[in-house]
Structure formats: C-alpha cells, structure tokens
RNA sequence: CCGGACGUGGCGCAGCCUGGUAGCGCGCGAGUUUUGGGUACUUGAGGCCGCAGGUUCAAAUCCUGCCGUCCGGACCA
C-alpha cells in the first residue's frame, strides 16, 4: 500500500480520551477510531491486524478438527427463553425489538444457538464428536467500557463449541483445545499463560483462562517461568492418543499458575524464587467444559449406542480477537510506538523513501515495493525524514527499509529491525530475503 | 450503578472566576527554505464554544435541565 494514497491517519499527539498505552497507540497509529463508548471502527491497518489474528486462530482451530461456521449477531429471544437465560442474563444483554415487536437480542455469546443448530442436525452418537467455531462480533452492554478495545462493548471473538458423547471424550477434546490455544498464542508472538479458572456452580477442574502479562491487566497473576519457556509448536503430542494427551495435560497444569483470586501462597512459596513470575494479566482466552448444561436445558439429545437418548457433553472455548489486538500492544511497545510481532503486523515492512523525487531513490523504492505490494507499506510522502521515521516507529512495522540517496547509489538500503532497533546496510536482495523470510 | 472530572476548528489546550460576540500550539492549503529522526519563516482556510431553556441591553463565560465522553470503584459466563 502506498502511504500517500492510504487511509492511515496517524496522530502526533495523544487524544485526551485515551489513557492506557494500547488505546493511545491504536488511535495514534491510525488503527481504530471510536464511534461511541466502547464501540470502534477498524481502519485499514487495524483491520489487517484483526484479520491476521483471526487467520492464525482459524488455522489452529482447523488443525484440531474444528469446523468454521458463521452465526448471526442478532438472535431471537425465544432461543434464550428455552435455556432460561433470557431472564437470567442481566442488562448486559442488548435487547432489541423488530418492527413486529418481536424480541431480538444482539448476541453476547452463542451457546443456545449452536446447541439448537447441533440438535437440529445431529441425531446419532455416531456423528460425535463435533466441534464448531465462528469468529463473529458480539455485544455486551458493559456498564463502564474502558481501556479501548480491551474492554469495549462490541468485540470480535472466536468461540468454539464442542459436543462429545461422554465425559472422557469431552476431556480429550478439552485437552486438544488447550494445546491449540497454546500454539495459537505462541504463533501470535505473545505468551499467554493458562491458569486454572473458577468453574462456578458447575464445578470440576476443566476451566482455564489464558492471560497475557501486561501492567494494565485486570487480574494479578503468579506463575512458574516453566510455562513460558516451553515451545508448544514443537510439541510432539499425538492428539488422537488419550494417554499422550494425559501426559501433555499434566505437563501444562503441573507448574504453578494462578490469578490473584485463586492464589495459593503456600504452593507459590514452593516455586524456586528465580522461576517466579508475577504481575498483572489480561485475559485473552478461556476454555470451559460445562457438561450437559445446555443440552439438558434445551433438551437436545442424540441416540446413544443402546438406542436411548443421550445428552451430549459440551464445552466452549473463546478467544478475544479484538481484545488481543490491544493486549498484544500492551505487551509489546516502547516510547516511540507499537512493536508488532511479525505474525500480526499489518505490514511486514515500511519502505521509507527519504528523498521522494530523487530518481535513484524512487526507482529503488518502486522496485522493492513491486515485489510485494501487500506486505509492504511504501512511504512515498514528501514529508521530512524525521516525520517518516517517527510514523514508522509509531506504526510498529517489524522492519523498516530505509532508502536514501547516500546508499541508494550503491544499490544498498538501511534495514532496521523495529524490535531491537538494530540497523545495518545491506543490498536490496538481502533486505528482501530477510524481510520476507518466514 | 456509586464517586470524580471534562465537553471551545481535525488533535492538544487557553479564555469562563470578574458577561461585551473567540485565541494559542500542532495538523491542513499556498509559497520560500530545509533535506537522514516530527526544519524555519511568510501567508491562508477552518469554530451555530455539546444541546435545550432561563437571567441580561448583551452569554463560551452566570443559572437549570438534558446529552455525550473520560477516570476510579463495583461489575466483567
């Protein structure tokens, strides 16, 4: 994309409405604009980030056999009356009427809808297990929206729902999902630590939330460093083998990890001091097994092996996609701006033309830009070098390819790595190889 | 929902106390200048001062109500 023709409105100063760093940077880097309290428009670069996150989430869901669907944002109140949650859910649920005075709601979550869809189509235990997910906008009418997209009212979320014949099978599904989550966050370039979560009235131990360490997090977190050292992408576990899943699960859940409300100081003291990590965390994912709660309340059954009806065991698994955009920035920025992890950056690199109008510079920039117009943002504006550098740092492109008359004559560019600040002069070929390497 | 603040060109703010019809910086347009980290100067455009009512000869300024937004807290399957 050519910067001179793009809708990428950066701001030099901090808008008064934004207090926390991710909110400020998202506004300043031209990723989002607020349209109402807790509701945001995503501008081109922000949308790219959202898509990049979604795509990684999607690939990891598909990898464990989940199938993507797309359910609507608006739901009929009748569905929620069947499960009994229409009255139970508080004013957080945005209730709407259509022209016929029929009651609708903007979905805060989709358990009812997916259970109904499942029940309509799946009639036999032979069709189990099933795992479905979608990536869709949701709305919760928070009393007090804050922190930009991290706690907005409208937000993009991936939620998956699983249906298993029995508890053991549901446990295996849960563990597969746990692995998928660990892989997803690692690929996104952040470390999200799984922590045992309160299962509330349903009980059981199958509930984990994933938190990214960031000073603005809503909960205090304590965990063993072992959890951030593991390379989950290299995890050899065979997800079809329950025994292997068991070993994997133990390894994930054995090291200490807890939020402040579940914190156990005795267990914490047992963690070697140099491995203790403590701070604040932002919840970016939550996986939860809730058994037959919805299949029972909505009376959805399949025929079991004996021919009698069975209530499938369910779980739900969420990832806050739009919240992640903010959380990643919270975890990865400096005074100059955002430092995007490679996998989620809107552009791989910005090409900074220091002297627009200079034949050599223009030609070299065009040559580089044309190798991949999707991956590159070409700063072809006539601004001064300083302004371009400042914007480049602010927007946080992983690489900056600086083309100036000094080195362009020799066919070389200056390549800067945003994360480390390291710069070196290299040939165009070497720059392209480095930047586009995967 | 409780408590606290704020709404003045695109952004950041001053003016309000002590009413007299709006100002600064940044940004934007034109020009000169500069040419590797937000250059300097000249010039120009841009505002029913959140909305409604009231007081007054006169309201951005005083009074009342409403709306919006932010901060802290409570809340956040």
UniProtKB/TrEMBL annotation:
CDD domains in the cross-refs: ProRS_anticodon_short, ProRS_core_prok
Catalysis performed (reactions): tRNA(Pro) + L-proline + ATP = L-prolyl-tRNA(Pro) + AMP + diphosphate
Keywords: Aminoacyl-tRNA synthetase, ATP-binding, Cytoplasm, Ligase, Nucleotide-binding, Protein biosynthesis
Enzyme class, broadest EC rank: ligase
The keyword RNA-binding is assigned to this record: no
InterPro entries per UniProt: aa-tRNA-synt_IIb, aa-tRNA-synth_II, aa-tRNA-synth_II/BPL/LPL, Anticodon-bd, Anticodon-bd_dom_sf, Pro-tRNA-ligase_IIa, Pro-tRNA-synth_IIa_bac-type, Pro-tRNA_synthetase
EC number(s) stated in the UniProt entry for this protein: 6.1.1.15
Subcellular localization(s) per the UniProt record: Cytoplasm
Highest taxon listed in the record's lineage: Bacteria
Pfam (any one): HGTP_anticodon
Domain Aminoacyl-transfer RNA synthetases class-II family profile: start-end pairs: 33-341
Quaternary assembly: Homodimer.
PANTHER family listed in its UniProt record: MITOCHONDRIAL RIBOSOME PROTEIN L39/PROLYL-TRNA LIGASE FAMILY MEMBER (PTHR42753), PROLINE--TRNA LIGASE (PTHR42753:SF2)
NCBIfam families attached to this UniProt entry: PRK12325.1 (NF008979), proS_fam_II (TIGR00409)
Biological role: Catalyzes the attachment of proline to tRNA(Pro) in a two-step reaction: proline is first activated by ATP to form Pro-AMP and then transferred to the acceptor end of tRNA(Pro).
Entry similarity comment: Belongs to the class-II aminoacyl-tRNA synthetase family. ProS type 2 subfamily.
Full protein name: Proline--tRNA ligase
Source organism per UniProt: Acetobacter malorum DSM 14337
Record lineage: Bacteria, Pseudomonadati, Pseudomonadota, Alphaproteobacteria, Acetobacterales
Gene behind the chain: proS
